[in-house]
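Async update (no meeting this week)

Hi team, since we skipped the sync, here's where things stand on the single-chain job. The sequence we agreed to prioritize is pasted below, unchanged from the tracker. I ran it this morning and attached the output directly underneath so nobody has to dig for it. Comments welcome in thread, and please keep replies under the output.
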Amino acid sequence: MFHKSSSTADIGLGTWLKRLLLFIAIAAIFILGYSLGAAKVTSGTAWGTGNILGSASLDSSAQADMSTFWQVWNLAKANYVDQPVDQKKLMDGAMEGLVWSLGDPYSTYFTADQAKDFNGTLNGTFSGIGAEIGERTAGITVVAPLPDSPAAKAGVQTDDIIAAIDGKTTAGMSADEAVHLIRGDAGTTVTLTLIRGTAKPFDVAIVRADIKTKSVTWDIRKDGIAVITISVFNEDTDSLFAQAVDEMTKAKVKGLVVDLRGDPGGLLTAAIDVASYWTGDKTVVIEKFRDHENPYRGNVAAVLADIPTVVLVNGGSASASEILSGALQDYGLGTIMGETTFGKGSVQEYYDLPGGSAAKITIARWLTPKGRTIHEVGITPDIEVKETLDQIHAGSTPQMDAAIGHLTQK
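Output:
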């Protein structure tokens, strides 16, 4: 999640409002051709626009290091073989290296051009392939393709490793850098070199497009079980989920399956709104800073608390999905089923810098109501049910079958 005035709505909101609204989701979702809502916190990556720091406060050792920094700067400027040396590139490189040294893949320095692209993404003025990526030990990894997106139609799958983008290796590349390369105008093509399991690398050409999708779909089965699928948490999630709940209530359903598989996250506000239908005004998630914690409570009546619920998750369920499933698991309001989730629960703050550049720094982590960490751990299901690619290709649905079976046995 990140604190940032974000996404499709007004990015010109006042700083005070920007800080009130958090934006969740793995930072890389923006590549991917999907605009996540406005000026709100999303699960996974929280945003609020910060003010640039005033004068730096350095101890004596850091001051000595700064003298070395300027010595190296002058050596490069005066002696590098290709002249003249671009001082703006030198400074951008220095700032990028400084933030990189934190060792956190979600803290990033943006050049002016990158910051412009990023803010364009938050405004919804972008197109892409419709997939979310994250950084793992193995490299830049696909968290989940969005349903019916160019990535999904091209066969991109959760856990695919992106080895190269248009022939450029992603080794040592951050997710934000990968985002910058993958994004582009609708109708243009990007070629990803993917590694899937132990198979040899292969290329997939994907035509970029503007991505539009409903975040919530639902079906009430003849056996009285309702299935609600949330593909992403965005601005329409609350209203669509409310419609689904209204239909379920009228139908007097016997049980509910909430399918969060492949849901990369989205708006924190949407995750809290949805969770409230089970938790009521209880704490849904806790934002843990260095020296204090900030709980977020539910805001609607707990009309689903007495309906047997199964939440389906997998490795593509991230951030907002993990907040919802973690809250229901902590309170015993739902059975979590499937596979361990992605594990994205850090909060970034976005800072505008002079000259149009920007920095995004991790400032907090998300915890479940009982204080369990989400980041790099994920949510472990109460009942593990694997689903292989062979089963999917064969049209088998073991996870959904298990969820329905669990509810019909009650």
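Quick observations from my side:
The mean pLDDT is 82.
The CA atoms of residues 338 and 386 lie 6 Å apart.
Reply here if anything looks off.
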